[in-house]
Amino acid sequence: MSEVYAFIEAEKTTFGVALLCRLLKVGRSSFYAWRSGEQARTARQAADHALAHGITVLHLASKGACGVPRIHAELRRHGHRVNRKRVERVMRERGIAGVTRRKRRGLTRPSKKAAPAPDLLGRDFTALAPGMKLVGDITAVATGEGWLYPATRMDLATREIVGYSMADHHRASMVVDALRMAAGRGGLQPDCIAHSDRGSEYTSGELRRDIRALGLRQSMGRTGSCYDNTAAESFFAVLKEEIGTRIWPDRATARAEIFVFIETFYNRRRLHRHPVWGYVTPLETRQRHEQGHTLTA
């Protein structure tokens, strides 16, 4: 029937709607109802096309990493009042999808001699304010020169990477450097918890001495339980999927790109879902904590 109505629409200026409807045995009211609906459908298609363009821009800006939740949040942040289900439909129809994280192989090698610290988090990866809880981990990325090992420290209140280091080894000195960077940025509270797995780098005497000197408390998850340090491990899953590169030509290139990913994208632009404030970046989360502290002071 739509073809009949489309024919009438195309020929109405030549023969008139009444004559065409009578010859084709359709009601004029039905034709006008179809035309009204067709106009609405055309308008919706045009709106979907414009929405798809905006989604594509955001998706490309994230290097193909963003899925429906963060695309929807980004659109809302840019002033677009759009339903999440509509964003999901438009992305599905056009084959736009975020990355799917793959399981990664950890570097944890427990020390057989050093006694581990107690688990002070108990899988509670939340914090009331910045500087109260830090989590740390190490991963390996492949380069044409061999492995590069990044180590990080994340603040659980903001999900901000406040300390990091990279080296061609994963000895204790690199996790010490990441912790010192976190402390150097300021804002760590007395008795701040420094949590990690039980890898030999984290049970080293060198790290223990630094933790005591900084007035922090060391905490460790159980051996073989990735869930005890999942917040720290999740960052490297994000990095490896969203940065896009699988093998860098050399360590210097990998180091530079990881630095840019942390400082310009992850900390300042990547949205995280906060239980109170919705989708905000780690930097915005820290700023809101600081504003709240100023107002109550």
Automatic annotation (TrEMBL):
This is IS3 family transposase. SUPFAM superfamilies: Ribonuclease H-like. It comes from the Bacteria. Involved in the transposition of the insertion sequence. It comes from Streptomyces johnsoniae. Residues 126-290 form the Integrase catalytic domain.
